[in-house]
Amino acid sequence: MSNTVRPPGSSHDSVKLIKFADDTTLIGLISNNDESAYRREVDRLVSWCSGNNLELNAQKTVEMIVDFRKSTVPPPPPSVMDSPITSVESFRFLGTTITQDLKWEPTISSLIKKAQQRMYFLRQLRKAKLPAQMLVQFYTAIIESILTSSVTVWFAGATVRDKQRLQRIVRSAEEVIGRSLPSLQDLCHGRSCSIAKWYKPAAGLFDIFHQDSPSGWS
Q1: Is the pTM of the predicted complex or chain greater than 0.90?
Q2: Highest mean pLDDT among 47-61, 79-93, 162-176
Q3: Per-residue DSSP letters for 195-207?
């Protein structure tokens, strides 16, 4: 599918449309139990796809509600092509598992499993007597890249236990290589600062944070 055909952006501030390749996501902020703007944007997207000869796959379309109120009544799901959208407790978005309670253990466990599998190759390279610098390069490209996948999204919300599990992988790699490696905390901090500097001038969320912060941005 040509990426030159693009769905329209959201017409309401409380609803954001995010598109990556052939994945399209609508995020709606529901206030005072008023879902009208969110549902209008869903209908608008469905209508746009129909008018541009693009078929939405209702079987792969899901809705997840994040609601931390103590007493809630789930609203009826919207429909796509006369088929109600399935409501789920979690879904994978660009490789990251997002859950209703915004807990990151499923994502972290998946990353740890992948990183542990790749540690085998690091040990084999060490046995082959590769120089330490090449081992560091291998670790950075093959293992660290796994551990830091979407790290700025989930690291701050990870539990102490999960952060320790992640850091054990880093320490194991340090023992194999014989050199110190950047901690995940430092890597996350550096990337978060880079994102903040890049997006601060125009991003809507940063404007909200600026308003809520007593000191504002420096």
Answers
A1: no
A2: 162-176
A3: HHHHHTTT-HHHH
